Write a sequence for this structure.
């Protein structure tokens, strides 16, 4: 034992001598360098970025990779699918926020993409209310809702009024995914007193790695110009690629923007 301790001391002395010869500092020197390096960063980070990942609930590709991302973000779960409940519970247990990803009819596209319990423009008022309430009941821990597709429905005042009324009753915010420029959500949410926010960018509206990386760059550029930004990515076909791109992008925003949840950015608009 004594022999070992002596060897340890000799090694430490040799290491110190070697570092001194190289002009390096020990741990104390490193700490000092870090503190002085922090000085320009003492101005508080005021930019806030919220990431939302859509389409959970159906054992989609990239589910695990997304949940492993080291930031708070918002998980949008589609109702009435095989892993809707499981994904919501998993996300909640991992400290993420859960929202209901409500399937809604688009102007273009197949009805089969919508999934079960979808809101279509041919439905009567009572059926719309029933479907929205059932979806809210289906997804545990939900604090809000956003639209899956929905370029046709989110431009329809009759339907959006019912959906937002249910959100108000269930104390949910509504995040406008902005799949159309004709959305009536902002106006109606203000009238009904439902907190809202709007998506500012899709990471993966095309599934190529090149496009997703380009969108991640655009996300950073937008944050140079604005104080808050909400952006949406997806599990499913682009899931693993998007998770990879986000994992690469997250540390690049260190000291520049803080990752928050959508509920930290929703606002009550004045009518
Ligand atoms: Zn979706």
């Amino acid at each position: 034992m004594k022999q070992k301790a002596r060897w340890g001391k000799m090694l430490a002395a040799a290491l110190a001598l070697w570092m001194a010869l190289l002009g390096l500092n020990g741990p104390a020197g490193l700490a000092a360098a870090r503190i002085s390096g922090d000085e320009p960063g003492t101005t508080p980070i005021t930019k806030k970025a919220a990431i939302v990942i859509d389409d959970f609930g159906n054992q989609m590709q990239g589910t695990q990779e997304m949940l492993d991302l080291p930031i708070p973000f918002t998980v949008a779960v589609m109702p009435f699918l095989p892993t809707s409940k499981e994904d919501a519970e998993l996300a909640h247990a991992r400290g993420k926020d859960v929202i209901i990803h409500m399937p809604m009819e688009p102007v273009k596209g197949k009805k089969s993409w919508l999934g079960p319990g979808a809101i279509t423009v041919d439905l009567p008022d009572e059926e719309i209310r029933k479907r929205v309430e059932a979806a809210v009941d289906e997804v545990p821990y939900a604090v809000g809702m956003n639209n899956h597709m929905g370029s046709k429905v989110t431009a329809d005042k009759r339907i959006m009024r019912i959906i937002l009324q249910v959100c108000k009753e269930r104390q949910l915010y509504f995040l406008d995914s902005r799949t159309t420029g004709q959305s009536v959500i902002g106006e109606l949410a203000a009238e009904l007193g439902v907190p809202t926010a709007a998506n500012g960018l899709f990471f993966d509206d095309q599934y190529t790695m090149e496009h997703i990386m380009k969108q991640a760059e655009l996300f950073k550029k937008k944050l140079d110009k604005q104080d808050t930004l909400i952006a949406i990515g997806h599990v499913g076909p682009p899931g693993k690629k998007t998770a990879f791109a986000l994992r690469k992008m997250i540390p690049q925003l260190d000291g520049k923007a803080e990752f928050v949840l959508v509920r930290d950015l929703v606002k009550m608009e004045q009518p």
